[in-house]
Amino acid sequence: MIKAYYWCPFIGKVATVKAVINSAKSLKKYSKNKINPSIINVVGEWNSKKDILNQNEIDVIDFKTNIIDNLPKEGFFWSRLSYIIIFFLSFRKLHILLKKKEPQYIIIHLISSIPLFLLFFFNYKTKFILRISGYPKLNIIRKSLWKLVSSKLYLITCPTNLTINLLSKKKIFDPKKIFYLPDPVLEIKEINEQKKTLEDINYNFSEKNTLLSIGRLTDQKNFIFLLEGFKKINKMYPELNLAILGEGEQRSNLEKKIKNLNLESKVFLLGYKKNVFKFFKNCKFFILTSRYEDPGFVLIEAGMMNKTVITSDCPNGPIEIIDKSKNGYLYKNNSLEDFIKIFNEAYKEDNKILFEKKKNLKKKCKEFTIFQHHLKLSKLLN
After folding, report:
1. Could you write out the DSSP letters of every residue in 237-273?
2. How confident is the model at residue 198 (pLDDT cuts 50, 70, 90)?
3. What pLDDT score does 25 carry?
4. What is each CA distance from 174 to 12, 15, 147, in whole angstroms?
5. Lateral strand order in the sheet of 127-131
6. Distance between CA 245 and CA 74 in Å, rounded?
7. Do residues 38 and 3 lie in contact, with contact meaning Cβ atoms separated by under 8 Å?
8. How large is the average pLDDT for residues 334-352?
9. Do residues 38 and 59 lie in contact, with contact meaning Cβ atoms separated by under 8 Å?
10. What CATH class has 188-368?
11. Phi, psi values for residue 192, rounded to 5°
12. Per CATH, which fold does 2-184+369-381 belong to?
C-alpha cells in the first residue's frame, strides 16, 4: 500500500485545512485501499479535527507537542514567531519520522520551509510534493530555498493555472514538474445532507431580498468595500438586505462602519456558521469582494448551489472560474464604480439569461469535487 503523508501545520482558520482534509478523504474513499493517507499533527493543530478525520478513517501522526492553544495567532510579527517555534519543535521529529517510516510521498501545504530544509540537508526515499498557491512572495529566503531543492522535489502542484504561469516565468522549477491540481472543495453527498439541516436564522432571510457574502473578517475579504458598495445599492434597491457570515479581527471595524453608514437594519454580521448551504439556498446573489483568492472555496460552493455570483476579478481563482459572458459577473477589483455597474447589470438581467449562467457555473464547479481531485492526484502518485 502507498503511504502518503500530509504536512500542513496551521495556527488559524484557513481554507487550506479543508482542502487537506478533502484531499486525504478523496484518497481514502476512492483509491480502493491502494493509497493510505495520514496527516501529521505537529503542535496539536489537528486535535480539533480528529473527529472528522476518524469518521473518514484518516490516520493522524501525532508529534505530541500540544501547544497550539498557547501560540500567538494574530498579527504579522506574532504569527511569524509561531512559525519559528513550530520550525524548531518539528525539524528533528519530521526527519526521524521520514527516515523510520519511509512513506512513498509527503504532500507539503503550509509552513513548507521545514520539510524543504530537510530535503536540502538529507536524502530520503520519500518523494516530496510541494503545493504552491496564489502569488507567493518570493523573498530572498524562499526563492533561494526553492532553487536549492528544485532538483530534489518530485513535483509541484498548483490549484490555478495563473500560479503555474507565474512559476514558469520565474524559472525556479522545471516546468515538467509543475502540475495543475484543483482543490477538492465539494462533496456532493455532504452538500445534499447539509441543505436539509436548518441553521438558526435570526431575521427575515429570503431569496427575494438577501445578498450573501461569506469569509473571514479580514482585510483580504475586503468587506469594508462591500459595505460601501451596498450603501449605494440600497439607495437604489431599498428592499435588499446584506448578510455576512464569518468571524475575524475586523469585526469591530465592520460594526463601526455599518453604524456610520446607518445600515444597522440592513446589514447582518451573522458570525461563523458551520453549515453555510442553507444560507446559500435562501439568498438572491452571492457576492465575493476579495482582494485575492486561490481558488475561492465559497465561490465554488455558491456555484454548486445554483446561485448567481458577482465577484471581483482578483487573482487567482475567480477569473479562472467566472466567464462573464457565460456563467457569472466580474467587476474590476476594488473599483466601487464598476461594482455598482455590474451589480445593476445582474439585478436587471433577464431571468432566462440568469438561469443559463447559473447552470453553466454549476457545471464548471463540478471540476472541484473530491472525486475529480482523486482522479488527478492518484494519477500523479502512481
Report:
1. -TT-EEEEE---TTHHHHHHHHHHTT-TTTEEEEE--
2. low
3. 95
4. 32, 28, 10
5. 59-62, 35-41, 2-7, 105-108, 127-131, 155-158, 178-180
6. 20
7. yes
8. 96
9. yes
10. alpha beta
11. -60, -35
12. Rossmann fold (3.40.50)
pLDDT tens-digit readout, 85-98: 888 889 999 999 99
Helix (H) or strand (E) holding 39, with range, is: strand 35-41
> How many CB atoms are located within 10 Å of the residue 202 CB?
8
Indicate the length of the chain as a whole number. Answer: 382
- Specify the amino acid at residue 119: L
- What pTM value is reported for the model? 0.85
Q: Which triple of cell numbers denotes residue 199?
A: 441553521
Q: Which residues belong to CATH 3.40.50.2000 in the chain?
A: 2-184+369-381, 188-368
Distance CA 54, CA 337 (A): 49
Residue 73: which pLDDT band, with cuts at 50, 70 and 90? Answer: low
* Residue 378 grid cell: 492518484
Backbone angles phi, psi at 365, to 5 degrees: -70, -20
Q: Nearest CA to 111 among 130, 83, 135, 74?
A: 83
By C-alpha distance, which of 48, 204, 184 is closest to 109?
A: 184
| Residue found by looking up cell 466580474 in the block | 330
DSSP 131-195: E--S-----HHHHHHHHHHTTT--EEEESSHHHHHHHHHHT-S-GGGEEE-----B-HHHHHHHH
